[in-house]
Amino acid sequence: LGAGFAYGGLWPPQSARAMVALVERPMATVVACRPMAPLARKALLCIGFAAATVSVRAQIYQFDKAPLPAEKSLHTLHSFYVYSHADAPMRGSGQPFVKFHGLQAHPTNAEQADVDLQSYDSVQLSIVPYWEFWELIDPRKFCSASTDVASGDAEKADQLLIKQGPASRPREAYTHTVRFNVAGQDTQLSVRDTGVYILVFSNCGSFSDGTISGSVIVKNAYGFLPGNEYHKLPFYGWLLLAYIFLAMVWLYLSFRWWRELFHIQYCIAVVIFLGLLEAFFWWIHFNDWNTSGFRSTPLFVIAIFCSVIKSVFSFMLVLVASLGWGVTRPYLDQRTIVKLKVLCVAYIVLDFIRQSVLSFRHSHNLSWPFKLLCLLPVALMNGAIFYWIFTALSSLMETLRERKQQDKLLLFTRLWKILIASLALGSFAMLFQIFDLSKSINTRWHYQWFFADGMSHILFISVLACMMYLWGPNMNSQRFAYSSADVETDEKNKDTAIQDVWADEEGPEDADDDSFWATTHKTAGEGVGRKTLTSAPAETIGASSALES
C-alpha cells in the first residue's frame, strides 16, 4: 500500500473492505473510487499524489484552486480527530463543529463561464465518520441516480449517495455542495460524536474542468488542535515544570559546592537547560497551534532543533563519561574526538529529518520506503552509539577494578544498571506500539501519542534524574573526578606488586646465602676469641688439602 501511495497507479482490491487500510490512516493524498461502467458497478481505486494547491494545517484543510475530482469519482483527503463536547478534556471553546468556509468552484475551460455552471451541484465535500464509513458509502455505487430519488434514498440525482440507517440508529454525515458563480457561503454543523472523521471530496456529475477554493475547518471544544495531538499540550507543560524543578535543584547544589565541580557536572547542567528549552518551545508551539489553527513553521523548526540538540548532547555526555573523560583520563585522544564530531554532525542532520517526517505523517502522503529511508539511519546510529557506550563502560569498569577505585566503580556500576533498565523499558514500549498497530485507529488514537512521544520523554528525564543523583555536587565530588594522584597511586601499586613478585621468587636463595655468609663471617670473626670453634674447620680444611696432595 505504501508503494502505491508513493508512485501512484492502480490497485484493484479483492473486496471493499481492503480500502480500510487506506482510509484509516490520515493522509493528504487522493484515494479515488470510480465505477468502470454503469452496468458493472465495480470499484476501481486510483491512488495518486494530491495537488500542490492543497494544504493541511491542523484541523483546517485549505483549497487554493485545487482541481476538481474526475467525473463519477470520490477522493478521501484527510482525517480529523474530534472529541464530542461531553468527552472533551477541556471545554473552553464551546460545541465542536465542522465549518465549510468560503468554498467556491470556477471552470478552467475558457469556453465556459461560472454562469453556465451555476446549476451544477454534483461537486460535494463531506465529513464521514470513519467507524461507519462502509455503512454510509458503498464503493460499488456511491453516486445517486433517478431511481434512488424515486425510492427516497436520495434527494437529487448525481450526488453523493449516503445510506441512512434505521430510525433507532441514525447515521450522520456532514455534506456541503460546492457551487459555481455563487460566493462561498459558510455552513457550520455541530459534531456530536467522538471519533475519527474522513474528509471526502466527490464529483458525481459529468464536468471536471474546474478548480475549487476555500477551506474546511474542524474545531474541538478546546480549540483547533487535533484530538490525537491535544494531550501533548498539557504534557509538555508538566514536563516544563519538571525541568524547571531539576534546574533549580542543580543550580542550588552547584552554587553551594562550586569549588567541588568538575566537567561532567557542567555537562549535566547543559542537558537540563536543553531539556527545559525543548519542553518550552514544544508547549508554545502546541498552544499557538491550538489557538490559531495553524502550525507555526518557525516555532516548529526551533522545537525540533532543540529536541535534536538535546538528544545529541545527552548521547555524547554518556559516551564520553563511559570513555573515562574526566574520570580516569584528563582528555580524549584526537582520533576519538574526530569520531565524536563526525557522529554529532551526522546525527543532527538525520535526526532533524526523522523528526520532521514523523511530525507530518498524519497530514502528508509519505511512502513506506521514504519513511524507512528517514528512520533506518537514525535507528542504526542509535544502536551503534549504545554499543559503543556499553563497550566503553565495560572497559572503564575493568580499569577501575584494577586500580581498586571502589567509589568510582560503584558509580559506573549503577550507571550501567540504569542504562540497562531504560533500554528494557524503551524496548517494551516499542513492542507495545508494534502490537497496537493491529488495532483500529478509531480505538487507539486517544493514547497513541503517549507511546510515540510521551514514553521517550519520561525515560529521558528519569535517566537524567538518576545521573543527577549519581553525580550530584557535594563536599566529596572531587573523588569522582580525574586526579593525577590516582595515577601515581596506581603506578606505586604496580611497582609494589612487581617487587613483591621478585621478593617471592628470590626469597629462598637469599636465605641460603645469608645463612652461608653468616656462618662464614661468624666463624672468621670469632676465631680469635674462641679457638675451639675455629679448630674444627681448620682441621677439616687441612685434611682436605692432604687428600688433594
Structure explained in plain terms:
The protein has 549 residues and is α+β, with helices and mostly antiparallel strands. It is 52% helix and 15% strand. It has 15 helices and 12 strands. The chain has helices at 2-7, 20-23, 133-136, 146-150, 227-230, 232-256, 263-292, 297-322, 334-359, 368-403, 406-436, 441-444, 448-470, 484-525, 531-548, and strands spanning 9-10, 30-35, 43-48, 54-57, 60-67, 73-82, 97-107, 123-129, 174-177, 187-190, 195-203, 210-219. The strands form 2 sheets. Strands 1-3-2-6-11-8-9 form a 7-stranded antiparallel beta sheet. Strands 4-5-12-7-10 form a 5-stranded antiparallel beta sheet, with no helix packed on it. Helix 7 (263-292) packs antiparallel against helix 8 (297-322) and helix 8 (297-322) runs parallel beside helix 10 (368-403). The protein is elongated. The model is unreliable at 1-55, 494-506 and 508-549 (pLDDT under 50).
